[in-house]
Every structure is written in structure tokens, then in C-alpha cells.
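Everyone, carefully examine this protein record:
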Amino acid sequence: MPLSRTEQIAIGSIAVGLVVLGLKALAWWLTGSVALMSDALESTVNVATAVAALIAIRVAARPADKDHPYGHHKAEFFSAVLEGVMIIVAALLIMREAWHGFQNPRVLDAPLGGLAINIVASVLNGIWCWVLITRGRLLKSPALVADGHHLLSDVITSVGVVVGVAAAVLTGWAVLDPALAAIVAVNILWSGWKVMASSLSGLMDEAVDEHALRDIRTIISDNAEGALEAHDLRTRHAGPKTFIDFHLVVDGRISVKEAHDICDRIEAALKRKLPDALISIHVEPEHKAKHSGVPVMGTA
């Protein structure tokens, strides 16, 4: 089976992560800098989480089965939570190395060459994080977006590391190197928490945002001619899928076919806006009306 676009990007993340890891490890080896070591350590996490993201994306793409009748879409959220945990672990390891650096500060070796290599790695990371975030949002992939935000934090901290190490070399203050590593660790901790928080909302069946909900209500209202009202609208998202269900009140005297045609019209309109939506509509007679929820155009 050919790879999907999402899977291709995830595989690209692994390749880019390995190249960046090699470059940053070389920069650390040349200089002995604790700050550059912390940057390389975060790249190790990048590779591990890129592998986890690819696995999650492949699992999420599996069709529904008897054990998972609603599909496997939430697998990507688990990947993003795992990524957040691994980011936090990396931050704690960097803090440990920074503490050792405070106790035994050292003069850096070959700083210019190491910094130049680190800058090349950061530029590559910056380009790829833009690809991940933009394509991940377009493909509605939480795993790719989470990976992109993680790389963005890596780019930001890499810039700080380069500036700080350069300052340590120019001033001769060797203690700046471990101090910068500690700052990097704090920033990574914050990044890990944000990734975990956003992913947990998906695991908790969080509704779509207000803008998307407003669009859904408008589409139902504009395409429910022949019905009386729609109420108890509920939504949730799971990776690229949006789940929508609501009750549609119709005149009890119309035929099942007529009611079904109204539902088909609403569903087709929603699918044009949200191609990956999974829609459930419960038809009810007029005495079930609540006179609230989504008004139907032309029935006021």
C-alpha cells in the first residue's frame, strides 16, 4: 500500500532528525560545550519522537474494525503525549549536565567550528519545523503539528545556545556555558508541558473550536429545509476526523424517505466543508422539539 502524505512527512522527520543529531553531536564533540551537548540531547529526543509519530500515524490510518468501530484516530494523540513526556525527560537530563558544568566549568575547544556546525543544523531544523506545522495543520495531524512545535522550541533554544556560547568565548566566563544549558532545560520543560496539554484535550473528546462550531451550525441551518429544528448538537475531534451528531426534528406526517433526504442534504453540505467528518443524525417527530439549538432557515 502506498504511503500517505502524512506518513511521507513523518519519515522525512526521522531523516532530518538524524542529520541534525549528527551535526549537533559533532559540534559538541569539537567544543566540549555543555550547552551544545544539551542541544544535541534534545535532537536525540527529536529522532525518538519522530519514530513514535510515524508509528502513531500508521496506526491511526487503519480502518475501523470490530474492536475499534470508531476507528484508530486517537493514536496520534497518544504519540503527542509521549513526545511531551520525552521532552520533559530530556530537560531533566540537561539540568543534570548543567549542574555538573557549574561544579566544573571548562574552557571550550574549537568554538568557532562547533558554532558554525550548530548554526547549519538549526537552519535545517527551522525549515523542517515550518514544513511540519503547516502541512500538519493542513492534513489535520496532531502528531505532525506536535513534532513541529517541538522542533520550533529546539530552533529557539539553539539560537540562544549559539549566542550564549559565543558570549562565553568572548568574555572568558566559562560559567555561562552551563548557565545557558540550564535555561535551555527550563524552556524545553515548558515546551513539553504545552505539547502534553494540547494532546490531552483531544484524548478527552474536546469539542471543535468556536469558529468551526459556528460553521457547522450555519451549514445545518441553511440545508435543513423541510425540518423544524436541530438540537443537542455535539462535536469532538480525533486526529483528522471530526465527529458530529445532533437530533433533527421533522413533521411527523412526512415519510421516512423525505426525512432521509433532508438528512442526506445536510450531511452532503457538512462533508463539503469537512470532508473527513463522521456524522450521525437522529430524526425525531415534532413533539420532541425543544425550541432551542439550531434554527432552520425558512421555518420561523
Q: What stands out?
A: Residues 202 and 278 are 16 Å apart (CA to CA). The first helix runs from residue 5 to 31. Residues 210-295 form a domain with the Alpha-Beta Plaits fold (CATH 3.30.70.1350). The first strand starts at residue 227 and ends at 238.
